[in-house]
Amino acid sequence: TAREEKLNFEGFQMDYRGIPKDGNIVGPFAFRLKYPAGFRPNRNYLEEVVRWQKLAFPSPYLNARRVEPATPQARKRAVAVLHEILSLTMNRRLTSDKLEIFHNEYRLPCKLLLCLIKNHGIFYITNKGARSTVFLKEAYDDSNLVEKCPLLKFHDRFASLIGRTCSDSNDLLKA
């Protein structure tokens, strides 16, 4: 139909039952998902993701003592807390050691890494040596940060003035 063609033209693909092919829905409790290029979810997985996306959860800014730890709402709240923490950083990423600091304060799940892996459409985890870093996927387009804060823009300009690339900028800070 014309409506389906319009939706496909706008980049929002749906299958015949009204479930988005990437799990992204519009709603107050939904997160933006970006799956890896080779990931092809089946219909059952997408139905579960859409159900989870529609699930209401308490605000990440409220006290977590009222939330039962083993409920889906608690899992979604933990994802919301991690999303907010990463959104507040300049690079939209943190090492897993730094995320563990927030563990007790925000009552995050004991198996935090498992929570991040289960939500691989929202977070990206990279392991470099013994250190793992968690990225917020919606903040990146490939390997480039979509919205840079003014301080990062200044840092990139400064690095280019002294003849270093942005990838060398971490070494610049150590020198």
Automatic annotation (TrEMBL):
One of its GO terms (molecular function) is RNA binding. The lineage of its organism: Eukaryota, Viridiplantae, Streptophyta, Embryophyta, Tracheophyta. It comes from the Eukaryota. This is Os03g0667400 protein. It holds the Pfam family PORR. Residues 22-164 form the PORR domain. It comes from Oryza sativa subsp. japonica.
